[in-house]
Amino acid sequence: MIGVGKMKQYGNVLDKPLNKGKQEVSLSAFAFLFSELVQYNQTQVDNIGELERRLEDAGYAVGARVLELLCHRDKGNRRETRLLGILSFVHSTVWKVLFGKVADSLEKGTEHEDEYMISEKELLVNKFISIPKDMGTFNCGAFVAGIVRGVLDGAGFPAVVTAHFVPMEGQQRPRTTILIKFAEEVLRREARLG
Amino acid sequence: MAAIYSLYIINKSGGLIYYKDYGSAGRMDTNDSLRVASLWHSMHAISQQLSPVSGCLGIELLQADTFDLHCFQSLTGTKFFVVCEPGAQHMENLLKFVYELYTDYVLKNPFYEMEMPIRCELFDINLTQAVQKDRVAFLGR
Amino acid sequence: MARVAPRTGDAIFANVERVNAELFTLTYGAVVRQLLTDLEEVEEVNKQLDQMGYNIGIRLIDEFLAKSNVSRCNDFRETTDVIAKVGFKMFLGVTASVTNWDADGTCCSIVLEDNPLVDFVELPDNCQGLYYCNILSGVIRGALDMVSMKTEVTWLRDVLRGDDVFELQVKLLKHVPEEYPYKDDE
C-alpha cells in the first residue's frame, strides 16, 4: 500500500511529539470534505454496492491508524485481548475521539452468536446528508463501518462490518446501526479464553 | 397572526430551485412558479440598474395591499424570497436563517447537484420547523 | 435595513460545531490515498485534488458569507485579508497571514504555519511531486469564482517539501461581475 507516513531521509516526523488530540476544525470543514469523498467515489462506480465498498475501504485505513494512535496515546500501548474489551474500546474511546461522544448503544445480536451492534441516532458523517429516494437503503455510514473494521482487524478481531438504517417507531428519521459480524476464529479464541 | 404564504429560492441564473407554498389561496402549479421566479429574477436585476448610485443590492422589500415580499440575495447570486402577510416582522431574519439551512442541508449534501432543484429531506424538515416556529412566535404577541 | 457588522474568525469558530481535527486529517489522508491508488500518476492526483477543492469551494463560499456577514469587498486586498483572517479560522481553526503584495494589488501570498491537513504526514520518495494540500488551492479558487473573481492559485512553499511554512500565491486574473441583461437571455 502506498504509505503516507513512511520514513524520509530528511524529515523528523517521528521525533515530533504526538499532539494531545485537542486541536479542532469546524464540523463544516469535515462535512464538505466528506461530501466530496462521496461525490468522487460516485464517479468511480457503476452501482451502489461498489460505492459502499469504496467508502468502507476508505474508512478502513482511517480505522487502522486510529487504533495505532489511540493505543499509543490513550492506552499506554496496552492491547485488548477480549471481545467485550475491544467492543467497549470502539464504542467508547474510538467514538469519543472521532465523533466527540460515546456511541448511543452497544448490543449483542439476538439471532446470531457472532453479531454485535453499535447504534447511533444519527452518525456524525450523515448529519447533513439526505439520501435520494432512488438510492434505496444506501448509507454513507459505510465509511464508519470501514473505520470500525479497520480498528477490529488491526487489533486481531477480524470481522465483517456494515452500516444500516433502521426505521424507528414514531421517529421521522431512522437511526443507524453498525453491524459487526466476527470471524469464526475470534469466537473460537474467545471460547478458549473462557 | 402574521403568516408566511410562500417561499422561493432561485439560483443565480434565475432558475427556480425551491418553492414551498404554506397553504395560501394563491398556490401555483409548477409552470407558473417557474415563470414567476424567472420574472422576479429579471425584475431584481433591473432594479439594480435603476439605482442612481452603483453598488445597489436590488429589491429587498416589495409591499402590496394583500402581501409583502422580502428578498435576500447572497453575494453568490442565489435569491431567497418570501411572500407574507403585510407588516410581517422578522422576515429578514427568517431569510438569513433559510440561507444557513441551505448552506448546511443542501450544499453539504453529496447528492445535490449545484444549481438544480432542491430535493433534500433534511432541508425540508428543518425548514418546516423554522417556519412553524415563526408562526408560533407571532402567536405570543 | 440595518447592515450587520462582520464577525471575526475567532468569534465564528467559537460558535460553530467543531470536531476533532484528527478525524479531518485522517479522512483527508484517506482521500489522498484513494486518489494515488486510482490515478497512480502524481500529477494526475495534484489535478484531481485541485478539482475536488474547487467543487468544495463553490459550495463552501455560501457558508462563509452566511456566517461571516461580510459585505461585498471593495478590493482584492480586502478579499484576501478576509480569506486569511476569517475563512481559514472559521473552517480550519487556524489563522493565515497575507504578504508579498505586488504593485498592482492583484497578486499576494497567503501564508499558513499550522495546517490540520498535514498532521503525521510525510511524503514518501515516490511521491515527491505531490502537492499534498492541493485541495486548498482549489477551495480558494472555487470560492472566489462564485463571487465573480477569476484567480490563479499556486504553491510557492510547502512544508512537506522541506519549506518552513505553507505559502499560496493568489493572483487575481479578472473581475467578472454578472450584469443584466445576462448573455443567455433571449
UniProtKB/TrEMBL annotation, chain A:
This is Trafficking protein particle complex subunit. Part of the multisubunit TRAPP (transport protein particle) complex. Belongs to the TRAPP small subunits family. BET3 subfamily. One of its GO terms (cellular component) is endoplasmic reticulum. GO terms for biological process: vesicle-mediated transport. PANTHER family: 41-2 PROTEIN ANTIGEN-RELATED, TRAFFICKING PROTEIN PARTICLE COMPLEX SUBUNIT 5. It is found in: Endoplasmic reticulum; Golgi apparatus, cis-Golgi network.
TrEMBL record, chain B:
InterPro entries: Longin-like_dom_sf, TRAPPC. Keywords: Endoplasmic reticulum, ER-Golgi transport, Golgi apparatus, Transport. Its main location: endoplasmic reticulum. SUPFAM superfamilies: SNARE-like. One of its GO terms (biological process) is endoplasmic reticulum to Golgi vesicle-mediated transport. It comes from the Eukaryota. Gene3D superfamilies: 3.30.450.70. It holds the Pfam family Sybindin. It is found in: Endoplasmic reticulum; Golgi apparatus, cis-Golgi network; Golgi apparatus. GO terms for cellular component: endoplasmic reticulum; Golgi apparatus; TRAPP complex. Coiled coil: none annotated. Belongs to the TRAPP small subunits family. TRAPPC4 subfamily. Part of the multisubunit transport protein particle (TRAPP) complex. This is Trafficking protein particle complex subunit. It comes from Flemingia macrophylla.
From TrEMBL, chain C:
SUPFAM superfamilies: Ligand-binding domain in the NO signalling and Golgi transport (SSF111126). Keywords: Endoplasmic reticulum, ER-Golgi transport, Golgi apparatus, Transport. CDD domains: TRAPPC3_bet3. GO terms for biological process: vesicle-mediated transport. GO terms for cellular component: endoplasmic reticulum; Golgi apparatus. It is found in: Endoplasmic reticulum; Golgi apparatus, cis-Golgi network. Belongs to the TRAPP small subunits family. BET3 subfamily. Homodimer. May play a role in vesicular transport from endoplasmic reticulum to Golgi. This is Trafficking protein particle complex subunit.
